[in-house]
Structures are given as C-alpha cells and as structure tokens.
Amino acid sequence: MINLSKGQVLKLHSDIIKSSGGLAGVRDMNLLDSALSSPFQSSNGEDIYPSIQQKAARLGFGIIPNHPFIDGNKRLGTHLM
C-alpha cells in the first residue's frame, strides 16, 4: 500500500472539492494525522492490519466517520481506499 503524505491527501481533497463542490478546509489536523497513520500500526512487531485491503479499510474508516475535513469526507475516504 502506498503511504500517502498529508500533502498528497490535502491536494486530493482540494481537487475533489473543486470538481464536485462543497466547503474546502481541514476541521481537525490531528484527526487527519491519525487517519493517515492508523493503517500502519503494529503490535509486537506485527502489523495490526496486514493486508492491503485491511489497510485501505482502516484508512477509509479513519477519514469517513471521524470527519477531519469540513466537507467531502465520504468522497475523499472512498477515493483514498
């Protein structure tokens, strides 16, 4: 799985808002940081989310219900997955 940078995700969010409408901006940068890092968590040296599908699902779950952006969280979350 590609580990997307915060800058890449912010650019994708901006592009999605421009193309489909809505309000631009981040509501909580800490929630965004958490969503981007959570798929890569490990415990005792083993990935908590070992498969690419599990990592993608965790990324989407970090973005969609936690709403780090003002608008477009579902659109971005599904796009990132």
How many strands, which pairing sense, and closed or not: the largest β-sheet? 2 strands, antiparallel
Order of SSEs: HHEEHH
Strand order of the largest sheet: 1-2
Tell me the number of helical segments per DSSP (H or I, 4 or more residues long).
4
Low-confidence runs: none
Beta content comes to under 5%
Q: Please state the overall shape, judged from the principal axes of the Cα atoms.
A: elongated
Radius of gyration: 13 Å
Q: How many strand segments? A: 2
Measured between the Cα atoms of the first and last residue, the distance is 10 Å
Q: Structural class of the secondary structure composition?
A: mainly alpha
Q: Helix fraction?
A: 40-55%
Mean pLDDT: 96
In short:
The chain is mainly α. It is built from 4 helices and 2 strands; from the N terminus they run ααββαα.
